[in-house]
Design brief:
129 residues; 5-stranded antiparallel β-sheet; alpha+beta; two-stranded antiparallel sheet
Length: 129
């Protein structure tokens, strides 16, 4: 019976797991920068200039945008129903909105948003209120 070097085996498994999870080349610029992630405080939002927006479960992002160019690539400036503008992730379907959000505070991929630049036919990840 062959003996397995457990520390070496464990290290190899962990290395493969970390490599699979830590691929920063996937997703949009906004996703890589943490836009849309759940948070409880500003310290949870790793990107400079982002704050933990006051939605259910929090939402790392930018408040007060006035045009799409104020937002990281892959997000857009949305006029929210609360009267404020936010950079929300652009999406095609709901799973894109919830990479960094737990199930109990999932965001929805909605076409019922108002983009400040007048974009039509696009969708944005809207966090729960």
């Amino acid at each position: 019976m062959a003996r397995i070097n457990l520390p070496a085996f464990f290290l190899a498994v962990v290395s493969v797991s970390v490599a699979a999870c830590g691929d920063d080349s996937s997703g949009s610029e906004a996703q890589r920068r943490g836009v849309g992630a759940a948070c409880t405080s500003n310290a949870d939002c790793v990107e400079a200039g982002q704050t933990c927006l006051g939605f259910k479960g929090g939402y790392c992002g930018v408040q007060g945008c006035s045009k799409a160019g104020d937002c990281p690539g892959g997000s857009a400036c949305v006029a929210h129903t609360d009267g404020k503008n936010y950079c929300f992730l652009i999406c095609n379907d709901k799973p894109q909105c919830n990479t960094f959000r737990p199930v109990d505070v999932e965001a929805n991929c909605s076409s019922s948003v108002t983009f400040v630049d007048g974009t039509k036919g696009a969708k944005a990840c809207v966090p729960p209120s």
